Amino acid sequence: MWDWTTWLEQYGYGLISLAVFLEILALPLPGDMMLSYTGLYVYEGKMNWIISILSAGAGAAASISLSYWIGYRLGKPFIVKYGHRIHLGEEQMSRITVWFEKYGAKLLFIAYFIPGLKHITGYFCGVTRMPFRRYAVFAYTGGLFWVSLFISLGRVLGPKWEAYHSTVNRYMIIFGIGSALLALTFYFYRKYKRRVLASLMDLLMKGIRHFNSLGKVRFLVLASFALLALFVSLMLGMIQDFLAHEFSQFDEVTSYIVLAVFGSEWQDQMRLFAQLGTIYLYGPLIVLTSVWIMLRGRNKRLELLFLLWVVLGGEVLDDGLRMLFHRPGPVASGIQLINTFPSKETLTSITVCGFSAFLLLRHYSQSLIRIVVFLFVILVCLLVGISRIYYNVQFPSDVAAGYVFGGVWVTMNVILLEVLRKLQDNDATIVAN
């Protein structure tokens, strides 16, 4: 086994560049580990952070360029001649070529996080004759992001890196695989768009007879269905992990990263972030949403009742869940906190901010404003959660659970509101006729 620390001390930035270069070419070298060790040296002051990233990025750029030109030079005749040995014939190659022409460039960005995939994408892009300029934009950007992320993780984790490396690496692999699955889902959706939409519309028509009349909010409803499915899946997974007591590593790593990134100098800002999870933000937001509904809403009474139901129901749901799971929380100032799962603050923040944003955006058509409000909600919820971890009053898994359970509650009520709104409109139409 190679002693990376000795090699790094002796050859420094040149070794980083060479190791990344060879690893991407498919040589059996632990590139992720090498980059993380580099970050550890940056933490210890033995190497420069920027120069380390540039050195590793240069090695990645050279390697992915070479692999592309090797594939380009070999071309399809090589695959036709030898591809049968790996069950890759001319017909399969033609399909891969079409797929790579459409979506291969985007896959390059996430391929670095999936073991094995980053070693072959360059060759395949060359074989399929992807334009080099298009290839370079995604491949170079993804390579720079990959080396920057792992070196920065090593720098942030510092001496704790060896203890946390396997956990962090596992989450990076999950991220890569999840991104790839998302890309594949998007590909199949584009390919079978009409069929998917037809099936989805049939399903929705069972609950809403005239779905097409939803007009401008159709996308919001469809997005809510997708988010509900995502949040329910995450919720079931979190409950399973909770029952199996599998949160310890996640909590330890996440807490360490938060405290490493936000040091003691962030005390004043964290107090402000914590206030975002209180009535000081929720009160004015609820009042603003209510006034907006009175001014712009078509179903004013229904929307106001739902706003009240979601806010109060969210509080009841939160209390019930925390009593159900009855999880002992962290020890803060010598006091053992209890019933911290899920986080009351993050569940409430995503419930109040998320549903209020939906009601506000439903009556506003400008895309830029919608994006700004959406990003604002994400930022507020994220800052509230970070403050809980920073002050050690909740575990990171408590915070994450608050987001997930709150997401289920909000998306479920968004869908229910639109169904009731549609039924109410249908009744009004029947009475008018």
UniProtKB/TrEMBL annotation:
Domain (Phosphatidic acid phosphatase type 2/haloperoxidase) ranges: 304-414
Parts of the chain that traverse the membrane: 12-29, 49-70, 137-158, 170-189, 219-239, 272-295, 368-391, 403-420
Entry keyword Transmembrane helix: yes
SUPFAM superfamilies, per database record: Acid phosphatase/Vanadium-dependent haloperoxidase (SSF48317)
CC annotations in GO: plasma membrane
InterPro entries for the chain: DedA_domain (IPR051311), PAP2/HPO (IPR000326), PAP2/HPO_sf (IPR036938), VTT_dom (IPR032816)
Classification via PANTHER family: ALKALINE PHOSPHATASE LIKE PROTEIN
Protein name according to UniProt: Phosphatase PAP2 family protein
Organism (species): Paenibacillus rhizovicinus
